[in-house]
Amino acid sequence: MRGRIAAGVAIIAFIVVVSFFCASPGIADGSLRLQSPSLQHIAGTDTLGRDLAGRIGYGVLVSFSIALPVSMISLILGIILAFAFSGARTLNTPFLMLSDTMKSLPPILLALFLNALSGPGMVKLIAALSIGNIPNIARLCSARVIVLRSDGPALAASLMGISRGRIFIRHILPFLMPYLGAEAITIFSASILTEASLSYLGCGVPPMIPSIGSILAEGRSVMLSAPWMILIPAVVLAAVGIALEMIVSGLSESDSASH
Amino acid sequence: MVAYDCYLFRMKRLAKRLLSILLTIIVVSLIVFLLQEYALGDSASYILSEDAGGSAADIFRASVSADGSLMERYISFLQAFLSGRWGNTVSGQDIAGTIADRAGATLSLAVFSVLLSVLISVPVSLVSVKPGKFPDRAASFLSVIILSLPSFLTSFFLIILFSFLLGILPPAGYVHPSVSVPGWIRTLMLPALSLSLLYAAMIIRIFRKALRENIDKPYARALYAAGASYPEVLMKGALKPSLPVLYTLIASSFSSAVAGAAVTETVFAFPGLGSLMVTAALSRDAVLSGTLVMLAALAVSSTYMILELVLFMADPRSRREA
Amino acid sequence: MMLLLLPSCGEERSSSFDIALSQEPPVLDVMLNSSISGRMIAVGNVYEKLLVLDADGNVRPELAESFSLSEDGHRLSFRLRSDVTFHNGDILTAEDAAASMNRWLDSVPAAKNASGGSYFIALDPVTLTIESSSNLSFLPVMMASSPQSAVIMPLECIDEAMDTGLVTEFIGTGPYEFSDWKTGEYIELKAFRDYKPYADTSSGLWGNKKGQEDVLRYYFVPDEVTRTIGFESGLYDAIDCVSSDDVQRLADRGASILQGGENGSIAIVFNKKEGVSTDRLFRQAVSLIADRDTLMRSCYGDYGFSLHSDYMEKEQGIWLSASDDPYGYMDAEKGKAMLDLSSYDGSPVRILTSNLTNLDRIAVSLASCLESVGIDAEVSVMDWASFLEKRKDPSSWDIYVSAMSKVPLPQQKTYLSPDFPGWFSDEDILSDIAAMNSSSSIEEAAERWAEIQYSLWEYVPVMIPGHYSTIYAVAEGIDGVIAEDGFYFWNAE
User: pTM score, two decimals?
Assistant: First the structure.
C-alpha cells in the first residue's frame, strides 16, 4: 500500500514539476495555427498558434489551483456542517433541507448565473464548484460522527462533561481524516472535470488563463483535424486520474488494514 | 401497539420529509430568483436586435421588465407555479407545454442511462471482485480513465466511434417514442451511453468496494464454511448486503441525469431540460429558470425520498435509526 | 430524397429536407430580431418583402409589381401584385403592406431617420406610398436588405403583436408556411401549395422560387463537431457554419462547399468617452500593433475571412474606398513608438467581448498582440445579455470586440453613432455623415462616403481587422441552394 501511495504521489509531483518548468500562456500567432507536434512545439500548436505544451503545463497548474481550494473548502464546510447538526438527532429536517437544496442546484446553472453576475472570475468558479460537494461531505461525516460519538472515548468524554467542541477536535476529527482523505481526492478530480464542462459551456476560467478544461474545450471543435489538441491533454488528465486513484486505493487499503 | 407506533412514526417521518421537500424547492427557486435579479442584462437584450427601437420594442421591453419588488414578483411566481398556470417564456412560448415536451426526453434519457449503467456495472463488479486478478485490473483501469476525462470528451469519442467511423448511430436529435420506437432508442443510445459510462464507472468503484467489504464479513464466511460455492457466496453474502449501496448510487445517478445533464444535452443537441436551463439562464428568464429549478429540486428530493423508502423496506435493521 | 446512409427502418423523417443550424433564433419576429438564423428560416421562405436585392446588389421588386421614386426624392410609391395570397388564404392588400412597413419603420431607427419620420399610406388595395420632406433615396435599399427585415404580414398579425410587442403567429406570403416549432429541436416549414411565383428566372434572393421540397426542417445543433459528423453520416442534408478546418475533409467526401459573399465584419470598438482609448494616438497605435491576420485566423481558420479595413463589405462596391487605410497594416515598431508619444500611462487595457460565435478568440488574440509589446491586457468574456449590459458603462471597458452584420448603408453602422457604446465624438465627421445622409442620391452619398471613410481611418473610432463569410456544406447531388447572407433552399432539388 505504501508503494501505491508513493507511486501515485510521485506521478503527480512529476507532472506538477514539469508543468512548472514549461508553463507559459503562449503568444498568439496566426501563421503557426494548428501545427502538429514537432521539435519546436512538442505538443503542436493550438487554434491561435500558441505552443500547446506550454499551455498544458500552465493549465495543469491552474486546474490544480482551482481543484485544491474546492476540495479544501468543501471538506472544511462539510465538516463544520456535520458538526453543527450532529448535536440534535440524526437526519433532522433543516439539515436535510439544506443538503437537498445544495444538491438540487445544478452546478452548471449556478455557474452560469454567477457568471452573469459580473463576468467570470476564479472566486465565483470555486464557489460554484464547492457548493455541490458540501452536502455529500456533510452526510458522510454525520454518519461517522454519530457512530463515533456513541462509543468509546468520545462517549466517556461527553459523560465527563467536556465541551462538544473539544470532543469533536480530539476524539472525532482524527478518525474522520483518512475516510475524508479519499473523498477529498475524489472531489479534487471531479472539480477538474466540472471546470472542463463549464469551460465548454463558456463559463469556466477567465479567457486568458488556460486550464486543462478550457484547452480541451477549445480543442474539441478541431478534434477531427487536429487530434493532438485533445489527445495530449487527455493523456495528461488520465495520468493524473490514475495517480490519484493509486493514492486513494492505497489510503483505503491502509485504512481497512488498520481495522 | 408496536405496529401502530411504527406506523405513526413512519407517518411522522413522511410528513417531515414532505415538509423539507417543500421548503427545499422554495429556497432553491428563491435563490435562482435572486441570482436572476442581480445578473447583468435582461431578456430584452437577448431577444431584440441590438438597435431595435420603436413602439413594438418598447412594448416588449415593458412586458419583460421587472415591475414590483423582488418579493412581489416571487410571490406571484409561486402562486402561478402552484396553481399550474406557468405562463410563457420571454420569447412567448408556453412554459408548461415546452417543459412537458422536454421532460419526456430528459426522463427517457435518465431512465435509459441508469438502466444501462446498472447493466454494465453490476456484472463487471461481480466478475472483478477478486482483487489483483486481470478482471479487477482491467475494470479499475477503464473506470479510472472514464472518470478522469470530462464527460463531453467521452461523448465526443463515442460520436466519433459510432457515428463518424461506424455510421450506425445518429449523433444528434431525439425521436419521440410515439413517432417511432426504434428511432427513439437509436437517438437515445449515444447520449445515454455517454452518461451511463460515467455512472457505471462510479458505481463500479463504490459498489465493488462494498462487495469486497461484505465478502470478508462473518456472514459470508459462514456461508463458505457451510459449503456454499463461490458464486452462491457472492450472491447471498456479498451482493445482497451491498444492495443498499447500489440503490443509493442509482438514486444519485438518476438525479444527476435529471438535473445536471446540460453539457451532454448540448453536445448531442438533445432537447431536454438541461439545455432548457441553459437557455433560461442566457435569456435571463426568471420564471422559466425558477420553474425548472423547482422541478429539478422536486425530482431530486423525491428520488431521495423514494430511496429512503426502499432502503427502509429492504433492510429492517435500518429502522433502528429512530 | 434524403441521403440516409443510416438504416432508417421506416422513420417518417426521410421525406423532409433537413438542415442543421448552429443557433436557434430566440424568436421568429424578424422585424425586431435580426439574427441570421431567424432570417435564414423565415425571410424568403415564409415571408416576402416588397423589395429584395438580386445577385448583383440591385434592388428588385418582389411583392411589388413596380415601384418608383419621384424626381425630387420625396415620394416613393409601390404598386402591389394583385394575386398574392397569405398562408391563411387572405389576399394581400396595401393595408397589410402599410401596417407591416410602418411597424418596420418604427422599429428600425436608421430607417425612421431615412424616412424623415413619415409613414406609409395605403391609397387603394394595390397602391402604397410614402411622402416625406426628407430625401427617400435611401429607403429602397434599406427595405431590401436591412438585417431587421421589412417583411409583409397580415394586418391581424400586426395588431395581435401589440399585446406583448412580438409577433406570435407567423403568416406570410412565401413558398413555405410555418408548420411547427419544437424549441431546442427544430422549426418545420411545409410547402405552400397556393404560392404563385413572380418570375421565371432567379438571381440571388430575388426571383423564381420553385419550392420543390415538401418539408424543410431546420434543426438546431450548437456543437460544431456534432453538426459536422451529423452531416457526414447523412443525418442532415445541409449545415451552416462549417469550420475552415473541416472544409477539405468534407469536400473530399463529396459534399458541396458553398461560401457566399462577406456576411459582415469584426468591429473592435474603442471607448472614446473614458479611459485610455480616448487618445487618438493610442487608438492608432493599437491599430498598428494588432496582427489582423492572426486575429481573423484565430476565429475563422484559413478560409472564412478576408482582410480589408473598409467598413462596408466587399460586394457593396460603391461603398468601398479606392484609397488605403493608413493604419491598416501591422507595424509593431511604429505602433510602439506612437504608444510612447501618446498619453498611455501603462494601466491595463480592458477588452470586453461575448462568447457568441467564437468572438472571444479574437479578443484573446488581440490581448496577446498587445501583451507582446508590453501592454497589460485583460479580457472579459460574458454571455450576450451581460455583454450588452456591461457595454453601456463607459467606466468598465476600453475596447470591445463584436461582429457587425452587413448593412445596406454606412449610416446603419451602430458604432458611428454618438449614443451607441463607443460614443463617437468627432464633430467634423459627424457633420460630414449628416451631409451624406441628406444626399439626393445613393451615388452622391457614396462619393461623400469615400472621403468620410478616409477620415474615419485616421480618427480610428473602431478598427476593422477583416470581414467574415460563412461557409456552408450541402450534401452531394443537391443543387439550387442559394448562399447569400445565409443559405436558402427554395430552389433546391
Answer: 0.88
